[in-house]
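Title: Prediction job returns without error message
Component: structure pipeline
Severity: low
Priority: P3
Assignee: unassigned

Description:
Job completed but the reporter wants confirmation the result is attached to the right record. Sequence as submitted:
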Amino acid sequence: MTQEQTTQPTDRAEDQGTGHEVEIMPSLEELLQAAELKAQEHYDAWMYAKAESENIRRRAHEDTDKARKFALEKFSGELLAVKDSLDAALAVETDDIASYKNGVELTHKQLVSIFEKFNITEVHPIGEKFDPHHHQAISLVDADAEPNTVVQVLQKGYKLNERVLRPALVMVAKPKA
């Protein structure tokens, strides 16, 4: 095989004198220029993809920061009504205990409705088996209940969407000796 037959990129032209087809080889400079153009295209595409991934990463970081910063915005807005009610109760100039009690009951109802709206539920486990994931035992007491059963709740616990916010403080029945 001749060198002309082994090279790949060729152009064909007719030899004017003989009428035969002759292969014309591109110069090494042309091949180098074509390779450099292709390399530049690949580099540009890579730089674009790199910049785009950096922009996506930055936007995701900003979005998570905003979500973290404003996650409690709705809940906080709802609690402002409860604070307003408490402020109004403190501003009352009467010595009537019944009016204070009514005001506190209304404020309590506001708070309970906000808790329901945001899926905050009470954990009040009297009679349940002690569960260290939901309860915090303060002491063991003698009781007629089954051993390891919650017999008294000192402080209610709370859950947010089934996740414990605060465990209930409880007293648990002692095992019988």
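Comment from assignee: result matches the submitted record. Residues 81 and 110 are 8 Å apart (CA to CA).
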